């Protein structure tokens, strides 16, 4: 299904009076409002193909119906999201959950909807029915060279799929680790991982990147071979300039200062980008901004400050992706909420009085530094996000429009009630 522009415009028209009042009230206090809107309008975050169905649990999955049954239908769903918010113009594929064998037609379908392909993700954390060697004891770090070779080959295949789709990055997340002390030689595992990644790195086209994700635990509960940003940074430094560290917000132990990690990776030119989600306990993959919106804002504060200092373009120099999925909400509504939360945090970071913050820091004026940050954080910037969306041709209120025009009901009619999308 596709959402006609006219429907979006009509609904925007209905909301226009209240929106205009709120927007003007807010805009009057923002010095560089045009610049803020321009940046918000240019901002896009990729939708993961695996989040378009209900999932996010190793226990029961309870489909809400109308889930995409094929890659084409996943692309259609991203088209719906992007039509509503104008900030989700790409999809990130996970292979072999997605098998884009018919690259030409997949690509043309995506471009008809104004979409392109973000990073491609490899999967050596599950065994596939036809594979020769098992990943039970790891993949790129495995003690057996034959297993490593198989995993390397898979990553090279994923690059090849990505090239056909015009992706520009390979995301690698390894479940490799150990469940018990003594199971692994840490240095051996790290060296094997590095050598395997070097072989993959050598296959990257000139304009490609490899993004190395880290995670402290799960599915292994004693050690993970790429367990934290230090280990990922070490690998990406040794690999070279095409390699960088991917920060999945859920991949940290509780209370980790993620914004500080972001700041330093950015300083070193080694911040690949993000998998956005939220978490209370571990890798919960909850809707972005649902648990710790202040942390998200603090991360965006570092991003805005650090990227501006390095002359980076927010829209293109970093990989922005969502990696959230769960069991109880409509996946499209959930993704719309995640994108809104990210744009809200971004807008709040954009309106921080940066010069005043620098002054407060230079004067060790701790109270005022906090006031400055919280002044921005406590500002209701939703009218800015709504205005940016409207000016880009999207909806002032994407979720309420999604409900109002009964998108899910139509998808259920088209696809049926008992559909299960591939993914976690
Ligand atoms: C691992 C992870 C990684 C995978 C995705 C499905 O927890 O975050 O990014 O590719 O989940
Ligand atoms: Mn992730
Ligand atoms: Mn994860």
TrEMBL record:
Organism phylogeny: Bacteria, Pseudomonadati, Bacteroidota, Sphingobacteriia, Sphingobacteriales
The protein's name in its UniProt record: Sugar isomerase
Swiss-Prot/TrEMBL keywords: Isomerase, Manganese, Metal-binding
GO molecular function: isomerase activity; metal ion binding
Keyword Metal-binding in annotation: yes
